[in-house]
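=== RUN LOG ===
request id: a7f3
mode: sequence -> structure
chains: 1
length: 176
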Amino acid sequence: MMNLRLYYTLLLLCLVFCACKDINLEIAEEGETPYLLGKVDREGLEGPNYIAWFQENYEDFELDMTTISELKNELGAYDILVFLGTWCDDSQLQVPQFYKILDACDFPENQLTVVALSEQDDLYKQSPTHEEAGLNIEYVPTFILFKDDTEVGRIEEFPADTLEKDMLAIISDNNN
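=== RESULT ===
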C-alpha cells in the first residue's frame, strides 16, 4: 500500500514537472545569444537574459492615460494572442510596452497567450507546437485580439499610431 502511494506521488510530481517545462523554454546554443521558444509568460520575459531590455522598455514607456481609461472598460471582453521573437528589436521594444498597457488596464492574465518564435532558418518564425499555423504570422511582434474565438484585429510589427490607440481602434471597430 505504501509503495503504491509513493508511486502515485512520484508520478504526480513528474507530471507537474513536465507540465511546467512546457513554458519559457530557453534555447542557448554555445556561442549564440539565448532566446525563448514556444509559450512564454512574463516570468520568462523577465528572466536573466531578457530583463534588461524588458525592464528598460517597460519603465520608459509613457502611457496615454486618456486612451487607457477608454480601453480599460472594454479590453477584458477579449482574448489576446501575442507572437514575438526575443531576438527581434521590435519585439524587445513593443512587448514590454504592451505589458504595461495590460497592467494599466488590469487585463486578466488568463486571457493572454504569448508565444516566442524561432529565428533559426529551418524554423523561422515558428514555435515547437505551431500555435502560429494558419494565422499568417509574417512579422513580430504580432498582437491579435479575439472576441468569442474570432479574430477581430491585429497589430503587426509596430503600431500605426500607438499601441493603446491601435488597440482601442480595433475594439471600437468591433463594437460598431
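=== NOTES ===
The mean pLDDT is 90.
Residues 14 and 62 are 43 Å apart (CA to CA).
=== END ===
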